[in-house]
Amino acid sequence: MTTPHRPELGDTRRPSSNRPPNRSDGRDRPPRMSVWRQRLLRLSRPPRDTGRDRGAAFVEMGAAVILAALIITTVYASGVSSTFNEGVRQMVCLVNGPGCGDRTWVDEDRPDEPEQFEWGSGNSNASDNKNLGMQAAAADPYNWTDQEWTCLDGLWGAMSNWDSGMVDPTTGARGIVGFNPAEHGSLPSGFNDSASAQISWGLGYIQEAHGSPCTAWRYWQSTGYY
């Protein structure tokens, strides 16, 4: 049993402590931080002088771009590209490709010359053909006058400008009425040489397919054909 400390009675002993004396082995010291934890803390801290590092990276990138540009310029100036192109051309010539004879690469890639065509070009009979059409449309059994004639004039004017010799190289349509063998079958007898034959066929086709020129004209305006 521990004797209480009584300084008032002349007890010169120092008060005892419940804490055990310090150990010489150091186990009472606070534990040291592990090495791995110290490293993680250092990594988590923001790096210093980040602006300086970023500027250095930009300088290095700019230097690399300039160096690459100089290399490319040197290659083109030295004629290496011409040598490479000539080597490719010789390899293509082994399989009889373009650029080995009279035809060059440009000639090989150039499209065929388009056919020259203008609607109603050189059609000196447009007025005569239009008069034939007006007379035929106004006669029985059609009786297409006034507004119906205006629609017919607009339709065939758009198709051929009343040119009986018109041939559309794209669609194959021909004549005043735009007859297309691929859609309408074989050409009627004398169709190519007669404006009257073309007009007669066209009026009959409009009546059978659309009922009237104005109906056919509206259909052509929305579809491009009738």
Keywords:
226 residues; mainly alpha; elongated
Strand content: under 5%
Determine the fraction of residues in helical runs and give it as a percent range: 40-55%
Distance between the termini: 126 Å
Average pLDDT reading: 75
- Unreliable segments (pLDDT under 50, ≥5 consecutive)? 114-121
Number of helices in the DSSP assignment? 9
Which structural class is indicated by helix and strand composition? mainly alpha
Radius of gyration (CA) equals 50 Å
The number of distinct β-strands equals 0
Sequence of secondary-structure elements: HHHHHHHHH
Describe the overall structure.
The chain is 50% helix and 0% strand. It is mainly alpha-helical. Among the domains are: 56 residues, no CATH class; 98 residues.
Question: What is the strand and helix layout of this fold?
Answer:
Elements: H1 35-44, H2 50-77, H3 80-93, H4 105-109, H5 126-138, H6 147-160, H7 181-184, H8 195-209, H9 213-223
Helix pairs in contact: 5-8, 6-9
How do you describe this structure in short?
With 226 residues, the protein is mainly alpha-helical. It is built from 9 helices and no strands. α5 packs across α8 (195-209) and α6 crosses α9.
